[in-house]
Amino acid sequence: MNLFLFGASLRKNSYNKQLIAIATQIAREQGVTCDLADFGLFDAPLYNEDIEKNIGWPTNITTFIKRMKNADGLVISSPEYNHSTPGTLKNLIDWVSRVKPTPWKNYPVLLMSASPSVVGGNRGLWATRIPLECCGSFVFPDMFSLSQAAGIFDEQGRLKDDKTLQRLQKNIQGFIAYTKALKALSAA
Fold first, then answer.
1. Strand, helix or coil for residue 37
2. Peptide bond into 103 cis (omega under 30)
3. Most buried residue, 31, 87, 156, 186, by CB count within 10 Å?
């Protein structure tokens, strides 16, 4: 089984990049092959149908789609901007949705967030879930929110709290089982 993962932040020391690194390690410990990407590699101009028709697809978007198609599921750890989806992530979702048939259709996605706030980016996850499900993705019901992220990582980027780590491990294991079950259903 293969997973494609990225922290949807451009900031170098992002909490979401730290969280996705831990999620990747947990998935690898479960025997999953992981493709951990730097979100900055998928930078693209704001979606504009004129660009699509007159210039074509940005190379970064076609690269993203190839990597997505090589994986059985996608894990996104996203910051919350003004209680919603970061514009850069929404732009990526929009570009990918223009491919026909859309790669999002029936594709398993796990949404995660790490935030210094008390709600852990939960509002942004709900906002991100909407366009993904609209495009046909199977978003895992148990999204993972990590609150008060400013004090939860140690100097090596590990989670300081064992209960939080166990909750994350359970979430990743659940998503792996969910993705395997969806794959088995589509093969039947």
1. strand
2. no
3. 87
C-alpha 72/C-alpha 154 separation (Å) is 31
Q: Per-residue pLDDT for 57 more than 80?
A: yes
Question: How many domains does the structure of the chain reveal?
Answer: 1
Residue pointed to by tokens 């940005």: 58
Phi, psi at residue 149, to the nearest 5°? -65, -20
Mean pLDDT of 17-26: 96
Q: Which domain holds residue 146?
A: 2-187
Choose among 122, 113, 169, 118: nearest CA to 147: 118
151 to 100, 116, 146, 148, 154: CA distances (angstroms): 43, 8, 11, 6, 8
Determine the pLDDT at residue 120: 78
Q: Which long-range contacts (CB under 8 A, 24 or more apart) does 30-34 make?
A: 30/172, 30/173, 30/176, 31/1, 32/1, 32/2, 32/3, 32/176, 33/1, 33/2, 33/3, 34/2, 34/3, 34/4, 34/5
pTM: 0.95
Give the contacts of 89 (CB within 8 A, at least 6 positions apart).
8, 39, 76, 78, 128
187 or 169, higher pLDDT = 169
What CATH code is carried by the domain that includes residue 45?
Answer: 3.40.50.360
pLDDT score recorded for residue 149 = 86
| Per-residue pLDDT band at 12 (split at 50, 70, 90) | confident
